[in-house]
Design goal:
About 55% of the residues lie in helices and about 10% in strands. With about 500 residues, it is mostly helical. It has 5 domains: about 100 residues, no CATH class; about 90 residues, Orthogonal Bundle (DNA polymerase, domain 1), CATH 1.10.150; about 160 residues, Intergrase catalytic core (hpI Integrase, Chain A, Orthogonal Bundle), CATH 1.10.443.10; about 30 residues; about 80 residues, no CATH class. It starts with a strand and ends in a 7-residue tail after the last helix.
Length: about 500
């Protein structure tokens, strides 16, 4: 509901100046709340028209007073509209302060971005990753370049952010910076986070991203099949350095640990858990989330292979990431893999081939990978053709079992009825086909009364006829039986059809 708003001017009686003039005041009323302020001018009482809120007459002094009043009124109205657009609501106190310039603080996007980055930098290496910090710096740098390029200004007030600004920045990233779709998507998430900071603390009362639509492209993340994993494990490496790189990759295939987590893995993180098995009890460096992984035979053998080769408490002597991925690329070519090997491929392989393909639930996979949000997990975990085949085979088996249960249930019901109906006293059972009842509901009901010896049919006849006549107008559905259904019915219930004089047709 729109607020009520009124501006009124008056002279303050009882506050006469030495020259006899009175101070001119402005009164603001918003939704019943009243605030007033001095207009910084004096008005002769004889000139002031209380009814019209103006000076009367056409004298030079009256014109001067009225011009000042009009300017104040216009400015107050402008401030009112600004507050409604930015904050969504107005109070008399806010309007007064806005007009007088009290507490007006111009918040800008780049200033907010730089403040955020300065605070983020303090957390790098503790609760935040260096890579994430660089992404914030990159987006801030792009905005610093974008503003002069597109808007011919060095910064922009938060209140001027809108959907047009968001779309313009996306266009700038795609054209000027030549960013790909997924890069743009990631950068816009960063900007959205900065905007959310301003929204959460009240500096931005509206959402400039409202109506903005952007989504990443599906990326075919590579992974190794079970056969390729075995090929890699059996391959002869040309030197011990290549062998180390291969072994670390295989270790991550069976644990799902990222490069940084393997590099920082220390012996104290290897613990015998409550189940008597050896586990890795650690936290992911990237997200600081808990990641507990039971060690299978393959990674345990790799740990034993390199035990005692480091002096800093680390489990493995891990090479630099650049050197590591360079050698991985050579190993992939040696093994004839179509997938370009990088360390992250091991993590994808763990999620896909090792875990999901062997029936591990996605919730468990998410915990093992150390994801903060389960929505992240499907990005890494592709469902293999083998897994789909296994799942469909399981479904087929379940459907066959369900079909058998249905057939058996109806067989039991029929036999139970045929066995137990002999216990019904003679004259108390009247069997009728559904089709006969549908063809002549009234006649069949009358026959049932007669066969069962139910009296007073004459009393119920009118109501029964009314009911059955009403049903005549109902549209009947036509059933078409599939050949498979007819086959199953005839094979399993053929004897019942014969006993009841039924014949099923397509």
């Amino acid at each position: 509901m729109r607020s009520t708003f009124k501006v009124l001017f008056y002279v303050k009686k009882g506050s006469e100046k030495p020259n006899g003039n009175l101070p001119l005041m402005c009164r603001l009323t918003v939704d019943g709340e009243i605030k007033q302020f001095s207009c910084k001018m004096d008005v002769p009482l004889r000139l002031w028209d209380v009814k019209n809120n103006r000076a009367s007459g056409k004298s030079v002094e009256a014109q001067r007073i009225n011009l000042a009043v009009d300017k104040i009124r216009v400015e107050v109205n402008r401030r009112y509209q600004e507050l409604m657009q930015t904050d969504g609501y107005v109070t008399a106190a806010k309007l007064k302060d806005a007009y007088l310039g009290i507490g007006v603080k111009q918040e800008t996007l780049l200033k907010l971005f730089e403040q955020h980055n300065a605070e983020f930098a303090k957390k790098v290496g503790h609760s935040r990753a260096q890579g994430t910090f660089r992404r914030y710096q990159t987006v801030c740098s792009h905005i610093r370049e974008f503003l002069p390029h597109t808007y011919k200004r060095e910064d922009i007030p938060l209140k001027e952010l809108n959907l047009t600004f968001i779309n313009d920045f996306e266009y700038f990233l795609r054209t000027k910076k030549k960013c790909r779709t997924n890069t743009v998507w990631g950068y816009m998430i960063v900007l959205k986070h900065i905007v959310s900071i301003a929204r959460n603390d009240g500096r931005l009362p509206f959402n400039p991203f409202a109506g903005y639509i952007n989504s990443p492209e599906s990326v075919n993340r590579g992974y190794l099949t079970q056969k390729e994993i075995q090929t890699l494990m059996d391959a002869l490496m040309k030197n011990t350095y290549h062998e180390l790189v291969r072994d670390l990759f295989v270790f991550s295939v069976f644990t799902g640990l990222a490069y940084s987590d393997v590099k920082n893995l220390t012996a104290d993180r290897l613990q015998t858990f409550f189940d008597g098995n050896l586990w890795i009890i650690t936290r992911r460096k990237k997200t600081n989330t808990e990641s507990n992984i039971r060690l299978l035979d393959v990674p345990k053998r790799i740990i034993e292979k390199y035990r005692g080769l480091t002096k800093d408490g680390c489990v493995f002597p891990v090479p630099s990431n650049g050197s590591y991925n360079k050698i991985l690329k050579e190993i992939g070519k040696q093994c004839g893999f179509k997938v370009r090997l990088t360390y992250h491929v091991a993590r994808h392989t763990n999620a896909t081939t090792v875990l999901l393909s062997h029936g591990v639930p996605i919730e468990t996979v998410s915990r093992l990978l150390g994801h903060t949000n389960i929505k992240t997990t499907p990005i890494y975990a592709k469902i293999t053709v083998q897994k789909i085949s296994q799942d469909m085979e399981t479904l087929s088996y379940k459907l066959e079992e369900m079909e058998k249960n249905i057939l058996l249930t109806y067989t039991k019901l029929y036999r139970a009825y045929e066995e137990q109906k002999k216990y019904v006293p003679e004259g108390n059972l009247f069997e009728v086909k559904f089709e006969d009842f549908e063809a002549d509901a009234f006649g069949t009901t009358k026959l049932a009364y007669e066969k069962l010896g139910i009296r007073e049919f004459d009393c119920a006849e009118a109501a029964i006829r009314q009911y059955t006549d009403r049903k005549k107008g109902y549209k009947k559905n036509k059933y078409e039986y599939k050949p498979r259904t007819i086959q199953l019915v005839n094979e399993n219930w053929g004897y019942a059809l014969k006993d009841w004089d039924y014949e099923i047709h397509p």
